[in-house]
TrEMBL record:
Superkingdom in the source lineage: Bacteria
Organism of origin: Actinomadura syzygii
Region span, Disordered: 269-291
GO molecular function terms noted in the UniProt entry: DNA-binding transcription factor activity; sequence-specific DNA binding
Domain HTH araC/xylS-type: 179-276
Entry keywords, A to Z: DNA-binding, Transcription, Transcription regulation
Signal peptide extent: none
Pfam families, per the entry: AraC_binding (PF02311), HTH_18 (PF12833)
Organism taxonomic ancestry: Bacteria, Bacillati, Actinomycetota, Actinomycetes, Streptosporangiales
SMART domains: HTH_ARAC (SM00342)
Protein name per its UniProtKB record: AraC family transcriptional regulator
Length: 291
């Protein structure tokens, strides 16, 4: 079990073998602030205490006790305390294919389900999210897998909409220059090009590329690159590599640089995350990382 000592904040990051593709996080944060970031899958959380405040495409939203927080895949958001005492919550992170499979079983139209509201008032869904966590923490495989599917079914039937391929509400298609720039960044985590070099490589001018990248992706190229680096770091940590080696392989200046971005994105430091993959659970307290 990975452990980090500190005061005032605690985070437990884990998976259950019965739902191996779904990360679970139970945490209390006071001063911690999540950086603007995205997830490949969905975020469903229930606020147990306090208030969480976060930027969302619809503006700043606040979620108090009992509220269910929902973030769709690929949506830029952050997170911070909305009250002096901070907030405590339980979160599940199911990938798109898991949610889409449940939606298909419910008879949804082809497409990726989307949730238009970032904060829901649904006591039943809140109770189900807590039940997923309790079952996972107790090691109850049947209950964990059952409550996960029941939770997703409740959220899908009560709060989602179907998004078809021709849905006009989908984001605009990605310009060629932005798509090629992303490919270059993915291929150059270590020693990436400057903005001028990136623009030249894709046949664009620096500022128009920067503007198009931000408008399409939601982040400027340097911030997007750090998100890609964090995802690559997760993969290497899953393989058991130590944080210092992971930092050098993914283009971070050092372990401290990796730790700062990793914790601002996932809520736990990389050393504790690595322990979760080795022992099945992360317990992280405070902002300092184990060596």
């Amino acid at each position: 079990m990975g452990a980090v000592s500190g005061a005032g904040e605690a985070a437990h990051f884990f998976r259950h073998p019965a739902i191996p593709d779904v990360d679970l996080l139970r945490a209390r944060y006071v001063t911690h602030r999540f950086a603007r970031h995205t997830h490949d899958g969905y975020v469903f959380g229930v606020i147990d205490a306090g208030v969480e405040e976060f930027e969302h495409p619809g503006g700043v939203v606040r979620a108090g006790p009992g509220s269910v927080v929902v973030v769709n895949p690929g949506v830029i958001h952050d997170g911070r305390a909305g009250a002096p005492e901070g907030w405590a919550y339980r979160v599940i992170y199911p990938p798109v294919d898991v949610v889409a499979a449940v939606a298909a079983e419910l008879g949804a139209r082809p497409g990726t389900p989307a949730f238009p509201d970032a904060v829901l008032d649904d006591p039943t869904a809140a109770a189900l999210l807590r039940a997923v966590h309790r079952a996972g923490e107790k090691g109850d495989a049947l209950a964990a897998s059952t409550f996960l599917r029941t939770t997703l079914a409740r959220l899908l039937t009560g709060h989602s909409r179907d998004v078809r391929r021709d849905d006009p509400r989908r984001p605009p298609s990605m310009p060629r220059a932005v798509r090629e720039a992303r490919e270059i960044l993915h291929a150059n985590l270590v020693g990436p090009p400057s903005l001028d070099e990136l623009a030249e490589a894709v046949g664009a001018r620096p500022f128009p590329l920067l503007r198009a990248f931000r408008e399409t992706v939601g982040l400027p190229p340097h911030a997007y690159l750090n998100q890609v680096r964090v995802r690559a770091a997760r993969d290497l940590l899953d393989e058991g590599l130590r944080p210092a080696e992971v930092a050098s392989r993914t283009g971070f200046a050092d372990q401290a640089h990796l730790s700062r971005h990793f914790k601002r994105t996932l809520g736990v430091p990389p050393g504790a995350y690595r322990s979760a993959r080795r022992n099945g659970r992360v317990v992280a307290r405070g902002a300092e990382e184990e060596s």
